[in-house]
Design brief:
CATH superfamily of the largest domain in chain B: Thiamin diphosphate (ThDP)-binding fold, Pyr/PP domains
Shape of chain A: globular
Strand order of the largest sheet of chain B: 3-2-4-5-7-6-12
Strand order of the largest sheet of chain A: 2-3-1-4-5-6
Radius of gyration of chain B: 27 Å
Number of helices of chain B: 21
Number of domains of chain A: 1
Strand content of chain B: 15-25%
Helix content of chain A: 25-40%
Oligomer: heterodimer
CATH architecture of the largest domain in chain B: 3-Layer(aba) Sandwich
């Protein structure tokens, strides 16, 4: 109906998805799009499942991404993409960090961690781009840069030049972390499976 | 300059640009960041007040003193501030007063789903409702102008989806508003019966004038495309309507939801074949439209529960929703939980072990209600743990007094727990109150409060000594424990519950997320010593999980609090370098 594109960023509270959405928002505003970014703060931050919506286009009305509307789901944790799978557009792409973080029902033994859920998503026809972002972030110098590694994978699906992403990083992160994040971005972007 | 701002930051920017000189608030999701962003402007005196009532009264005083003032809170905070609000409606203002209130449809971080628009009608105050960040900024400025033009406080209502969504705003420079000279106006500001009787007609007449103003105000906007369907809507619901329909339906978008522009509504209704109201929560607009004798459909089709989206609108109007994929299996839930090393956990573990009845309160520690600790029995509102425990113990006497406690955080205790404690001492129930003092307002994202020794700008401030305060209100038994010491927690509970008089236990340790709290070396599990008894699983620490018949520790989460090592009967949790 509209030209609006929707990117959903999901993960576990405390994983740094805020910076990822900030970076993406900044980049898209600089590219001249109308942009809406929506995230829920507060209670869900305490180790709970968190979701951020990023929508851009000529004119964006709703800040929410609903079922079947996400062009890309970026998941900071292995099973979180599966939790939000219904939001993915038919034929959409999932960029997923393979890191596993046990939710409370798994910790207390009331449920099993469905580690093989990536294959199941793939079987439905979704493009699943899985990457060990934590390992690449550690290679870049800090596990905290996993968010930038993932955004570098997301960058592969955009028609925005590499340099523009780097400029957005420079504008978004504190000066002392620019070098680390530049490296993390490069590792994520050029990673070959 | 074009910027991407969350609604709350945009409101703060609007307050700033309008020349606001004073902001006093109490934190509450989703309103908190308005005040945090306002505090970044040196021109604004910005404060965290002990509660919303104090905050609004301080804003009233600043207005009386001739300054533009604002006060921000979440929906339930307005209940606390309702007392000054209703009479502030009578006195009106000198410097403009804007009261920002953020509702939480869907209860992302709240205990109820109340609709603040009802306050506008009940207190007879104009209420503006922005639909994106640009409107947040503009409406904050408009609110000040209206406040002074009509001699009224103005309510600025947002909801979670507006408060926490970023959209593009265009900022401009601040217009300074010099402090007005002070003059005494007893008939306007002393609300004793003789004067209040004279102010009430003013309030009624003001509402009429505001309704007239609403007819021509540009923020009540008709977007006419087609005569088949007409939708009256406002705020975030407007965005969902536009997302679902594009430009194929006509909309009357209301920027002011009280009072309403009667003529404009009648004119719009007359132009369309079928009229709907799309609004979250209560049928507030719908009832008002129907009261005009206009046929309208709203809650017959839309829920009064939760948040809407474009999907809700499409479903109701029979538009096609995109196809959604589905996986065949359940993904385990991931509810929010207390952090690894959270100081509240040790105290809750001790309470759960002793099978106490625990009246809870509002804060991170509400998460103590969840499995496996399942430590709480009730959560009502700010302060209700303390006052509720008093009533509980009065009802059940000795049977309850020895095994029931209230738990309340430091900030919540100052907000409205201390009055309950005064009641316990004064009306003599043998109650035991546990103050979970983590040295910060935690759940809303680390705000300073009168017990932390710092103000909102991070400058040193007067610090309440909780022990002295509790003694001063008449509690003789006050003791402090470290919640990382399980035995000390259990002993304190045993002794204070057995004592023949009311008592306070202050469970004191700073929140582990505070920057100055340095994590210690993570523990690990000695696989030889772990017998797989799962006793540690009852502690509910997110850093401990159970794999292949043994406990294991996630080193990236563990902060080395060592409480688990006090629980394990086999000494399997060990420090680096041991076993």
């Amino acid at each position: 109906m509209t030209d609006t594109k929707s990117i959903m960023i999901v993960g576990v509270g405390g994983q740094g998805s805020l910076l990822a959405s900030k970076l993406l928002g900044r980049l898209l505003v600089d590219e001249g799009y109308d942009v809406k970014v929506s995230e829920v703060h507060g209670m869900s931050q305490r180790g709970g499942s968190v979701e951020t919506y990023v929508r851009f286009g000529k004119r964006v009305s709703s800040p929410i991404i609903e079922d079947g509307e996400a062009d890309i789901i970026v998941s900071f944790e292995r099973i979180e993409a599966a939790r939000w799978f219904s939001r993915l557009k038919k034929g959409g792409t999932i960029v997923v960090n393979t890191q596993m973080i046990d939710p409370m029902p798994v910790i207390i033994g009331a449920a099993e961690y469905p580690a093989d859920v990536l294959e199941e998503m793939q079987k439905t026809g979704a493009a699943v781009d899985a990457i060990d972002a934590l390992a690449l972030a550690e290679e870049a110098g800090s596990p905290k840069a996993a968010n930038i590694v993932l955004m570098a994978r997301v960058a592969k699906y955009f028609d925005i030049p590499y340099d523009k992403w780097i400029q957005a990083i420079e504008k978004t992160v504190a000066p002392k972390f620019v070098e680390l994040n530049r490296k993390a971005f490069s590792l994520g972007y050029h990673y070959q499976k | 300059m074009k910027e991407l701002l969350i609604g709350n930051a945009a409101v703060a920017r609007g307050l700033y640009e309008a020349g606001c000189g004073f902001v006093s608030s109490y934190p509450g999701t989703p309103s908190t960041e308005i005040t945090e962003f306002a505090a970044k402007y040196d021109e604004i005196v910005c404060e965290w007040a002990p509660n919303e009532k104090v905050a609004l009264e301080a804003a009233f005083g600043a207005s009386l003193g001739g300054m533009r003032a604002a006060c921000c809170m979440k929906h339930v905070g307005l209940n606390v501030a309702a007392d000054p609000l209703f009479t502030l409606s009578y006195t009106g203002v000198t410097g403009g007063v804007v009261v920002c209130v953020a509702d939480d449809p869907g209860m992302h971080s709240s205990q109820n789903e109340q609709d603040s628009r009802n306050y506008a009608r009940a207190a007879k105050l104009p209420m503006l409702e922005p639909a994106d960040s640009m409107e947040c900024l503009e409406f904050a400025k408009t609110a000040f102008a209206l406040s002074e033009q009509f001699d009224t406080p103005v309510l600025l209502r947002t909801c979670t989806r507006i408060a926490h969504s970023q959209s593009i705003v265009e900022t401009s420079a601040r217009t300074e508003c010099p402090v007005k000279p002070y003059e005494k106006h007893p008939e306007k500001y002393i609300m004793m019966p003789a004067y209040a009787k004279k102010r009430h007609p003013f309030v009624e007449e003001r509402t009429e004038r505001l309704s007239e103003y609403a007819e021509t105000a540009s923020f009540n906007r008709e977007e006419f495309y087609d005569d088949k369907i007409g939708i009256i809507t406002s705020g975030t619901a407007y965005q969902y309507v536009r997302e679902a329909f594009g430009e194929s339906v006509s909309v009357l978008k209301l920027g002011m939801v009280y009072p309403l522009p009667e003529k404009k509504i009648r004119a719009f209704a007359a132009k369309v074949q079928k009229l709907y109201v799309v609004e979250e929560l209560d049928p507030f607009l719908e009832n008002a439209v129907r009261a005009l004798g206009i046929e309208v459909t709203g809650k017959a089709l839309f829920s009064m529960l939760g948040e809407f989206s474009q999907k809700t609108v499409r479903e109701v109007f029979g538009l096609e929703n995109p196809e959604a994929g589905k996986l065949s299996r359940e993904i385990p839930a991931r509810p929010p939980m207390m952090c690894a090393g959270c100081p509240h956990r040790g105290m809750f573990y001790a309470m759960a072990k002793k099978k106490l009845t625990v009246l809870g309160d509002i804060g991170c520690y509400t998460l103590g209600a969840q499995a496996p600790l399942s430590a709480l029995d009730s959560t009502l509102c700010m302060g209700a743990s303390v006052s509720g425990l008093h009533g509980f113990n009065k009802a059940r006497r000795a049977e309850a007094e020895g095994k029931s406690v209230a738990v309340i955080g430091d900030s919540t205790f100052i907000h409205s727990g201390v009055t309950g404690l005064i009641n316990i001492a004064y009306n003599a129930s043998n109650s035991t109150v546990v103050i979970l003092d983590n040295s910060i307002t935690g759940m809303t994202g680390h705000q300073q409060n009168p017990t932390t020794g710092y103000n909102i700008k991070g400058d040193p401030a007067a610090k309440i000594d909780l022990e002295t305060l509790c003694r001063a209100v008449g509690i003789n038994r006050v003791r402090v424990v470290d919640p990382y010491d399980l035995k000390a927690c259990e002993d304190a509970l045993t002794e204070e519950l057995a004592a023949p008089e009311p008592s306070v236990i202050i469970s004191r340790r700073p929140c582990v997320l505070l920057k100055y709290v340095r994590p210690k070396t993570p523990l690990h599990v000695s696989r030889e010593d772990c017998r797989g008894c799962k006793k540690c699983m009852k502690f509910g620490c997110p850093a401990i999980s159970f794999r292949d018949g043994k406990a294991q520790i996630d080193r990236t989460l563990c902060v080395g609090c060592e409480v688990c090592s006090q629980i394990c009967p086999f000494g399997a949790f060990v420090k680096e370098g041991e076993a």
